[in-house]
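We modelled the chain as a single entity of 113 amino acids. Its sequence is:
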Amino acid sequence: QVRLDASGGGVVQAGGSLTLSCAASGLTFRTNAAAWYRQAPGKERELVATINQNDFRNYKDSVKGRFTIFTDNTKNTMYLQMNSLKSEDTAVYYCNLPGLSTWGQGTQVTVSS
């Protein structure tokens, strides 16, 4: 059964950095496209970044130049490096395969101004 769980969130000051991790079971990132999503309080879940099997990456406009999505296939783990964090980045962050309807554990990121 496919499951992806995010970790690594926390509280950080504006301008700071965090790196989120996504551990996967039942799949390998080497052969699957994957993505990071986030859901802020009172808002719908939104797509933040995607990476495909050819290492092609795409980002939400508001995080371009600040966030980097990458995978370590030796560890079967996906990461989201987040720099220059802003208060509007505060949300619960999830990782998933595009189109997968079930969701694993998210991780809270809180950026204080």
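As a brief sanity check on the tokenised model: Strands lie at 3-7, 10-13, 18-25, 34-39, 46-51, 57-59, 67-72, 77-82, 91-96, 107-112. The chain is about 0% helix and 50% strand.
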